[in-house]
Amino acid sequence: MSKGPGLFSEIGKKAKDLLTRDYTTDQKFAISTCSDAGLAITSTAVKKGGFSTGDVAVQYKYKSTLVDVKVDTESNVSTTLTFADILPATKAIASIKIPDYTAGKVEVQYFHDHATFTSAVGSSQQPTVDMSATIGTPSFAVGAEAGYETSLGTFSKYNAGISVTNADYNASIILADKGDTLKASYVHHFDQLKRNSTVAEITRRFSTNENTFTLGGSYAVDPLTTVKTRLNNHGRLGALLQHELKAKSILTISGEFDTKALDRHPRFGLSLALKP
Q1: Where does this protein reside within or beyond the cell (predicted)?
Q2: Is residue 204 assigned to a domain?
Q3: How many distinct structural domains can be found in the chain?
Q4: pTM (predicted TM-score)
Q5: Which among 37, 47, 83, 180 counts the fewest CB atoms within 10 Å?
Q6: Are strands 27-34 and 267-274 parallel, antiparallel or unpaired?
């Protein structure tokens, strides 16, 4: 919506996605269909441990309005309405969940060439108010966010971050958990499509004096196949193989191992997403 900095939630997101996105230890199957009129339907089934769940999601887009409705196996209905450009450079998002009406919220996002702002208010009688702001440019941004519990009169969170981005790399530092956690990450891309990348992340938790260092990356074996790996200093090793069976239909096989306790059974996951 603008050529300015992204939202605060985007600081550190590239590293997080590279280290966590598509890794799973569940069995998941999803099938989607869409029409030229802007209607898309996705049915998903997930088996986790000895339990199976599923949901059906319907998405409809008309001009700058997007409607998402999701119904799960426990009869929970989640609805999200997104209105883009109802005011210049502004996006509004309203969500509601049935039967838990208190889980809904209304969010407004404002985009400027040198700043972005968000404000979200829950639908309960004593709602949580979340706000965030970033200033800068697409290549350099500084931001902060805070959450206020009106029922308690206290802040539930306050975080700050900084990011530097260009075509080849992304670096970020985030101070989170009310100042208790410091996280620094660096992502480097080796090709224009960003399919071959490496990532390093360091997390310091001051209250427990704990440090976590994670290395990871992705490698494109061929135009249809990608391999991703990650390893932290606690010995947790993860890997996945992702193959595009046909256009937008993806098969993902992933696993996680504890290299310091090889007698433990590794965990594996399988995901199949089919699109016409």
Answers
A1: Membrane
A2: yes
A3: 1
A4: 0.89
A5: 37
A6: parallel
